[in-house]
Amino acid sequence: MSVFLHSFAPPPRMLVFGAIDYAAAVARIGDFLGYRVTVCDARPVFATPKRFPPGVEVVVDWPHRYLQGTDTDERTVICVLTHDPKFDVPLLQEALRRPAAYIGAMGSRRTHEDRTQRLVDGGLTGRELSRLRSPVGLDLGARTPEEVAVSVAAEIVALRWGGTGTPLTATAGAIHPEAT
Predict the structure, then answer these.
(1) Within 10 Å of residue 117's Cβ, how many Cβ atoms?
(2) pTM
(3) DSSP characters over 71-125
(4) Which residues pair with 41 in a beta bridge?
């Protein structure tokens, strides 16, 4: 007897918080990578569908409130690009306590240190904080929103598949190890 099995898993989700220019670029690359992308921002002047690719869901709501009402799983990617503690801290308190494949937050090292202290003061544990990828992305020397989006996508892909981010010219052996 032959059995044909075809799985129809829904695409993984990418939740992008903060409807800034960087968010538009991250949403585009997330869509390209096959994620079902949602952009959320509390500011209606920024969270408008015309700023984002077709098919990207745009939600006007406080980020932490939206996340509280949204299901996440071990494939969900969360990108926090709001750059403002009044949005970042409550959102990350929620995000770091739920299932997700990736949780990244944009900001300088100084912003990261300040944000981390606020999260510690808010009761997050070291284990919870260890899940936060901040500053977000790999060091590619990115400057433009599109380059930063590539940096973020590279970090997400590397984390998903166990990559190191090392240039392949500096490695030896099989590029794609055989499955065991």
Answers:
(1) 10
(2) 0.91
(3) ---TT-EEEE----HHHHHHHHHHHTTS--SEEEE---HHHHHHHHHHHHHTT--
(4) 60
